[in-house]
Amino acid sequence: MTRELMKGNEAVAEAAIRAGLQAYFGYPITPQTELLEWMSRRMPELGRAFVQAESELGAINMVYGAACTGARAMTSSSSPGISLMMEGLSYIAATEVPMVLVDVMRGGPGLGNISPAQADYNQIVHGGGHGDYHPIVLAPASVQESIDLTARAFDLAEKYRAIAVLLTDGNIGQMMEPAELPPMQPVLTKPTSWAVSGASGRERRILTSISLDPPTQERTNIRLQKRWQDVQASEVMYKEYYLDDADFAVIGFGSAGRGALSAVRTARAEGLKVGLLRPITLSPFPTAIVEELTQKLQGMLVVEMNSGQMLDDVRSIVSRRIPVEFYGRMGGMTPLPEEILAEIHRLVTGPLTVNGHPRDRWLERLSSLN
Amino acid sequence: MPLKGRIDVNESLCKGCELCIGECPQHVMALAVERLNAKGYHPAELKEAGCTGCAICAIVCPEAAITVYREVVKPRKPAQEMAV
Amino acid sequence: MDLTNEIEEMQVVYSRPKSFTDVQTHYCPGCTHGTAHRLIAEVIDEMGLRERTIGVASVGFAYNYFDFDWVQSPHGRAPAMATGIKRVLPDRIVMTYQGDGDLASIGAAEIVHAAARGENITVFFINNANYGMTGGQMAPTTLPGQKTTSSPNGRDVELAGYPIQTAELLAILQGSSYVVRRSLHDPKNIRLAKKAIRLAFEAQVRGLGFSMIELLSICPTNWGMTPTQSLAWLEEKMIPFYPLGDFKVSPELAGLKI
Asked: Which segment of C59-63, C69-73, C197-201 scores lowest on mean pLDDT?
């Protein structure tokens, strides 16, 4: 296949179609509307299901219905619309039916703006819907990665009967880069022991998320937790750059990780022994590599487009054994490589401390600039 | 002469709501006040003769607890054939 | 010659429909949810739809009582879930079973849009003028002056507005093919309700668009009456506000003899 210049949102849509997507239900919201629009043209062309729902609430519930039949189904939205879907996501997780969600994050909280952000990390990774559940969360940093991870999302969702989220942002959704799409896979509803499709030649099935009997509900929760342990053991993905001999590491995902890579390369050219860890699965979190780095590094810098959400996950692994600093931009601002490089200089120069909270120090510096 | 009918009430499903009793055109149903089912309801039953198998009780029963029987009437064969 | 008829055996005239599972329901004595369930099960049996039907209902446990596939929907979202299912499995019969809050309150957007899109699903709306399952709170269908646990002095139209006549509302939409209101308060109306249920499923089988039956139902426990008293309340108080009748009937259905 040839590489073509394509827009992130459209690439994700087409990648899903090529992964055998049977049903897309969505609602317009900037900065992901191109995905919906692509689907509105392509899905009917291919005889597959497409509905522009009445709201994101309608969309997630349509996905829920289609997912119950075992069909590959997805929806996409951006931060405020994702909030509307939280009820549906909790129900879908509890019912253990697979689905794919794309969150093209934007500035918030509230209506925020239409510029890129990463402030849905906690909501998505730690579950914004009520109850104990874990979606699989994949964070691309380029259009090609968005394509590759979309196909992977469907496979992971089906393998673990889970929700798989492509957690991306307005930069990656809107940017145009050369990328290659995979070949078209056939639409295939694999037979399962649980799908509801009309009780033809078998006993009836009920798919539900309620168990009024607490012991039964606890057993469901235990099953979900144990399945999550399997996911944690097998599905962690990350990329490391220049970490072999590094004394310091930057940790960032998505657009922040991408900008950090530029900064790290410049720092290396200056002779600084800095590397980058870019998690690709945010959930399951790459705990083992962070632990490994904690044991050999002098310090870490977490870079995010939020107030330090992944920061807390990193800190809980590091546990004050080495200094962890933080640099973030919020409200739709993207940290540029120059800014990250300045932070790397600060990290390498020191002095660093394990006392206090890096967020407080960062907020002090950021607010004095604004 | 009206056809004869009969009903069976599934006593474990009946909740003693009395809707059938109120609707029975022959007024031949009542609650069995001398006994309770496992859930503590007095089940409905035929209290006297006169059921015509009209099935109105079954139509109003929210529990589908009633099975209704009606006599099947079959004409006797004509006399000429029988003589042979 | 003597041509007196001879009495043969007793024939079963009515028995519990097969699609109504053989368990006692948790509904109160006299609750016409049971009647509605029974009629739907009868029609499903008569039309031979059991193996093709998928039901969608939120908590309320309807899904435990029918011997066909069900999915449970979040409250109000059944029409959206039904849309998702029908769009990927268009040859199945997809039905929803919803109450006052589910359909007319939290789910108001979902039902309007499912009807507007002309989704080929069949919706059963049980209107008993309150939120029964949660203990009798005010509903969008609660009548002016009606006492409920969240309108203890009676529904005050100054504060809470007027009830919603859902069948009339949805009949306006072009996607609706069969939208009617029936009642379950006496044998004649129960028979008419069953005919409507049959027509609604026929509309779906023929791909005519959205079908809905609003079924006026009694709620003895929350109305604070016996089942028999409740029948009278329904007839005297509910029907004037929620008239029985056909609000939208697709021409293809009009001539159908069932």
From this structure: C59-63
User: What class, spelled out in words, does domain A239-369 have in CATH?
Assistant: alpha beta
Chain A CB contacts of C59 under 8 Å are 210
- Min distance A268 CA to chain C CA atoms (Å): 52
Long-range own/partner contacts, residues C242-245 (CB < 8 A, 24 or more apart): C242/C127, C242/C141, C242/C165, C242/C167, C242/C181, C242/C214, C242/C216, C243/C181, C244/C181, C244/C182, C244/C183, C244/C189, C244/C192, C244/C216, C245/C180, C245/C181
Chain C interface includes A65 (CB < 8 A): yes
Number of domains in chain B: 1
**Which residues of A are less than 8 Å from C66 in CB distance?**
204
* Residue B83 in contact with partner chain C when CB distance is under 8 A: no
Asked whether the beta carbons of residue A198 and residue C117 sit closer than 8 angstroms, the reply is no
DSSP for residue C228: H
Cβ atoms A152, A144 nearer than 8 A: no
Range of the domain at C64: 33-253
| Per-residue exposure over C35-60, b if at least 16 CB sit within 10 Å of its own CB, e if not | bbbbbbbbbbeebebbbbbbbbbbbb
Quickly state the pLDDT bin for B48 (edges 50, 70, 90).
Answer: very high
Q: Alpha-carbon Rg of chain A, whole angstroms?
A: 21
A199 closest CB neighbour out of C50, C74, C117: C50
Kindly provide the ipTM of the predicted complex, given to two decimals.
0.90
User: Domain holding B68: CATH number?
Assistant: 3.30.70.20
Buried b / exposed e over A294-315, threshold 16 CB at 10 Å, is beebebbbbbbbbbbbbbebbb
| Residues A184-222: tens digit of each pLDDT | 999 988 889 999 999 999 999 999 998 889 999 999 999
A358, pLDDT greater than 70: yes
Report cis status (omega within 30 of 0) of the bond before A178: no
Place of tokens 């809905």: C212
pTM of the model: 0.90
The 3-state DSSP class for residue A225 equals helix
